[in-house]
Amino acid sequence: WKHKGFFISNFCLIDFIKKNKIMSELWDTIKLLSDSTRARILIILNDEELSVAELQEVMNMGQSRISSHLSLLRQGDAVVDRKEGKKTFYAINLNCVNPLLKTVESN
After folding, report:
1. Confidence (pLDDT) at 97
2. Helices 36-45 and 52-59 sit at what angle, rounded to 10 degrees?
3. What does residue 103 show for φ and ψ, rounded to 5 degrees?
């Protein structure tokens, strides 16, 4: 494969694509966490699972604002949800976010 006058082997191209995918995923995570409300929700959910109503009380914010942020966090795999009757409870997705939070907390 030739790019700007340089020949790139298939191995280099595959490595380049993998690195760009990782950088893209990292950038998506940074954008997701760059909002202070979403970051605050994650910090609160790091301690315990909560419903939207409970988050409203803790954060002193409206339901629609919290729900829209939770929706983005869910799309980004930062939180998981669980239904119990009519209520939905949210918890941090430990596989996705906990290593990042530990890094932030240690610095």
Report:
1. 60
2. 110
3. -65, -45
Global pTM? 0.68
How far apart are alpha carbons 107 and 105 in whole angstroms?
Answer: 6
Is residue 22 exposed (0-12), middle (13-18) or buried (19+ Cβ within 10 Å)? Answer: exposed
Q: What's the CA gap between 61 and 70, in Å, rounded?
A: 13
**Binned average pLDDT, 10 residues per bin, the chain of 107 residues:** 48 61 73 87 91 95 95 90 94 72 52
Residue 90 near residue 55, CB atoms below 8 Å: yes
How far apart, in whole angstroms, are the C-alpha atoms of residue 15 and residue 2? 15
Residue with tokens 């996705």: 96
